[in-house]
């Protein structure tokens, strides 16, 4: 009975994390319309085939043409006495827009100039490097990942400076040229340069996931996923080699048999389910008040329902991908490659220890092929001014949406910037439904003209909103159970 009362009270009184800043309006004096010029510039940006193939192997001529195009496209940015521009690692760009108030720590907006290759050319409704406009969309590789961010940020800055803006807070724009292949020659060098100069940032915003529609269960509105961390990754090679062995005399236990058992054990004993600690919990709580009733009851009462939600999620979560190779069964060696995604609350060692504990068979050798530790978790919520200023800028251009902190599954250039600030966020200001997800790195990558207009205005609002001291807003938990 008592539990029921608590559940009801919490459901009814749970605080909302959503805010209602004044929306951006096409009638505003400083609204940036998606004019023909601006759309054409985005289209032209797509025509440069700035493909990354592997670390150190990209498309140098295309990158050089693209950065020249950028220089010629934004004359105010490139002639302003407030702006310095550096080419880093031959192809990456670092801009610094000097602010007048040295007490304000700089902000940094990141994106990247490179794109992934196009493998399935037929199937596109418009040629993938045409930048063609069709049915209200701009088509092509890079329109979502992420030349729209590069061009949108520069359009906003160009517009802002042209109107006579003199910033108080210094702002960096950092565009790596090899993000798609680990960023080691681009963003890594930019980060090193900034570190060597002793730069400390107030916040950093890079590309990320989108404003999603029909994606979060129990929520009718669109949800902007503002990532506060990234999963790590770990690729492990398991191998079993049987001694001696004549090809013609199969042993009682074959290498592949032992290995298959090991992989089966791993699949039956997934890594510790950590939902309920850290960002997963924050995600649910940020949306709690906006959910349909059954979801709302659960997410307002995670003290009670966390195990239930863990169980529900475990029913569909994939913790790893595995590939079992029988490299040569007659010579009795078998190899399995397992890709783990590492939860931000786990370490690489936790995952390895778990594997050893579960497999319990010394004949199975384990070798780490590559690993990336999960990103630190950036603060979110009302008490984090950097998170809130990004949230509010999103809500100004997407007033019919909600914002929630998220864990990005993939990795971005932010992995190189950890030492510059603890407030690192990832978000791309375009709408996506689950049917659109395959467009990323896939066929028919495209952005709607409306979304590109929002992209430009989002960055413009953000530039304006961060150009003052960021304030913490405390919020009261009136029922703390
Ligand atoms: C935009 O501004 C106009 C004129 O000021 C106003 O009538 C309209 O309601 C506003 N729209 C929104 C979405 O705020
Ligand atoms: C940059 O260009 C110079 C001169 O062309 C070349 O020697 C150097 O290897 C290049 N560096 C990178 C990182 O590509
Ligand atoms: C941060 O700084 C430490 C110490 O200088 C360095 O070892 C580390 O590689 C840096 N991290 C990143 C992500 O650059
Ligand atoms: Zn990207």
From TrEMBL:
- Per the record, a Pfam family? Peptidase_M20
This protein's name: PM20D1 protein
MF terms from GO for this chain are: aminoacylase activity; metal ion binding; peptidase activity
Pathway the protein acts in: Amino-acid metabolism; Lipid metabolism; fatty acid metabolism
Catalyses which reaction(s): N-(9Z-octadecenoyl)-L-leucine + H2O = L-leucine + (9Z)-octadecenoate; (9Z)-octadecenoate + glycine = N-(9Z-octadecenoyl)glycine + H2O; N-(9Z-octadecenoyl)-L-asparagine + H2O = L-asparagine + (9Z)-octadecenoate; N-(9Z-octadecenoyl)-L-tyrosine + H2O = L-tyrosine + (9Z)-octadecenoate
The signal peptide, as residue positions, is 1-19
Q: Give a GO cellular-component term.
A: extracellular region
Similarity-based family:
Belongs to the peptidase M20A family.
Sorted alphabetically, the Gene Ontology BP terms of this entry are: adaptive thermogenesis; amide biosynthetic process; amide catabolic process; amino acid metabolic process; lipid metabolic process; proteolysis
